[in-house]
Specification:
Layout lengths: L1 H9 L2 H24 L5 H18 L10 H23 L3 H33 L61
Length: 189
């Protein structure tokens, strides 16, 4: 228990918010287990445990090479849990009367904990802004490099051998043009 308390003391405020949301999701699963015989949001339980394990491994003396930054991992897990919590709430809206009081409390705790977890993870991600991993397989970029800007004090001159653009010739007379002089309208007077 002392090691868990040490890890909790190392968490910053945003990570504590995320961990609190994870603990609320776990509590909701237990309440749902007592209320109906099966827990609310088993995927939420797995996600909440995963977030707590990530924090535990981050702050213990382990030398883990994370594939991406920890805030990005916790944000991804929390976003998936929150998405499924909201979908579960929408799914159960028609059956709120069948849930009973404890079932309704479990469902609301699940949604609130998942949203709290996602909010804390989002705040931590916004503070740290880790670089996203480069998922491309090739090391060469497909875009050509940008041209260097002209040196200061020199103006970019247009090439002398390029004539100015002229409008294309038109076969249709304009409305302002006078009518042709030798009109053959068929008058024979």
């Amino acid at each position: 228990m002392a090691q868990v308390q040490e890890v909790w003391n190392k968490l910053n405020a945003r990570e504590r918010l995320t961990a609190t949301g994870a603990l609320v999701v776990i509590l909701a699963w237990i309440v749902g287990l007592v209320a109906r015989g099966f827990g609310v949001g088993s995927l939420g339980l797995i996600g909440a445990l995963a977030v707590l394990v990530v924090f535990y491994l981050k702050y213990t003396n382990s030398t883990i090479q994370w594939p991406v930054a920890v805030p990005l991992i916790t944000l991804a897990i929390s976003a998936i849990v929150a998405l499924f919590a909201v979908l579960t709430l929408i799914d159960w809206l028609g059956f709120l009367g069948a849930l009973g009081v404890l079932g309704l409390i479990a469902l609301l705790l699940y949604v609130a904990g998942a949203l709290l977890m996602a909010w804390g993870s989002w705040q931590e991600y916004q503070v740290e802004k880790p670089a996203l991993p480069n998922m491309s397989t090739s090391s060469a970029s497909s875009a050509p490099p940008a041209a260097a800007p002209p040196a200061a004090g020199t103006a970019a001159a247009a090439p002398a051998d390029v004539p100015p653009a002229a409008p294309p010739p038109s076969d249709v007379p304009s409305a302002d043009a006078p009518p042709p002089s030798g009109s053959s309208s068929g008058d024979t007077t």
